[in-house]
Structures are given as structure tokens and as C-alpha cells.
């Protein structure tokens, strides 16, 4: 039941849905900056160095 003719009244009655927090980005200049595997903490071994091709090509 609506008490007014305001179209936003229906929105105000809805329960808020929880959203997952976004992971923070690593600091600029750190070795994890730009890593596609960043999940909020540094990993044990650097995946960026493992993804590089052997021989420096």
C-alpha cells in the first residue's frame, strides 16, 4: 500500500541487497601493481615472473 503518489516510495520500501566489496588496488610502484591475479594480498610467488617467456623474448 502506498501512502503517496511519489514513484520513489516503492524504491524506499525495498530491502537493500548486500554488495561484495571491491578489492583494493595495490600501491603504485609495488611489484604487485598491474598484476592480473591481485586479490587484496601479495601472493607467495610472483605470477608475473612465471608468465614471462623464457629467454627474455
Walk me through this protein's architecture.
- The model has no long low-confidence stretch (mean pLDDT 80).
- It is rod-shaped and about 70 Å long.
- It is 18% helix and 0% strand.
- It has a domain of 30 residues.
- With 57 residues, it is mostly helical.
- The protein has 2 helices and no strands.
Helix amount: 10-25%
Structure class: mainly alpha
Query: How many beta-strand elements?
Result: 0
Distance between the termini: 68 Å
Region (Disordered): 1-31
Biased composition (Basic and acidic residues): 21-30
Give keywords.
0% strand; 57 residues; mainly alpha; 2 helices
Q: Quick gist of this model?
A:
With 57 residues, the chain is an all-alpha fold. It is built from two helices and no strands. The chain has helices spanning 9-13, 47-51.
Topology:
Elements: H1 9-13, H2 47-51
Amino acid at each position: 500500500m502506498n501512502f503517496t503518489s511519489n514513484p520513489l516510495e516503492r524504491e524506499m520500501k525495498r530491502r537493500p541487497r548486500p554488495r561484495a566489496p571491491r578489492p583494493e588496488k595495490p600501491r603504485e610502484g609495488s611489484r604487485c601493481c598491474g598484476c592480473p591475479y591481485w586479490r587484496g594480498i601479495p601472493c607467495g610467488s610472483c605470477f608475473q615472473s612465471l608468465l614471462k617467456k623464457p629467454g627474455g623474448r
